[in-house]
Amino acid sequence: MIAASSPSTTSPGRPDPLDFSLADRLPALDAGHGRLLIGAPPQPGKPSLLFVPGAYHGAWCYAHYLDYFAQAGLGCAALDLRGHGGLAPDADFPSVTIADLGQDVVNALDVLKGPTVVVGHSMGALPALLAASQRPVAGVVLMAPSPPGDLPGALALPPVPAAAPRPAPADTEIRARFLATSPDRDVSAVSRRLNAESPQVLNDRYLLRVAISAASITAPGLCLEAGLDTHDRHPPGQDLAIARRFGFTHAVLAGQPHCMMYADHWQISAAAILAWHRTQFG
For 40, 113, 198, 222, which has the most beta carbons within 10 A of its beta carbon? Predict the structure, then answer.
């Protein structure tokens, strides 16, 4: 277990973890219905990292990671899934499924070429796993993952109405669930970038409609559990069960909330991924 402190505000003189402006300056590549933000090009002999966001989020949420891993000498990119980040939703967006998002990840892997570790956060873990079952990948990293539908004991959730996109969470939920931060913290830098989400995507996850066979994933992997995650969506033992299902290493980041890639002390989760990458690939 890796422990971490979790202050609710930025310390004086330290960069604001909710500043995602780097994402607005990075080069972008089309990838089917998705769009890649490129942190650094592939490096010889070192598998690149492809970051897949969770529900409501775009590639911007990995801005800090893209800088961190580029400075560590690794190729890295983050994916705007269709209708997210810099990609406006179209008329078909309410019918988009997690399988469609999995195809977005497949397309991104095809654009990047070369050995790649696919990294999925929360709901984004499911399209990441689907893509890893369809394309050879160097590795898989899951961060606070949503469970595959065929995971024994996986927690289902109440469905949302299917007629229209689901509005992004309000500031109170961002503070409490995403960041585990103080109730008066300004989180407008997050809320103004979040997108509405396809109700089919949410119900695919909530109703456990995405089955992923353990045999379909042959790459090594890492599953990072957020120690401050909410038990209504991540009950104790679920993340460990996901790791064991796919034969992945499991680690608990004790002081980290659900959105560990931009929470206070996001560097702890980034360092855990980098350490695993170096152990696997040198």
Answer: 198
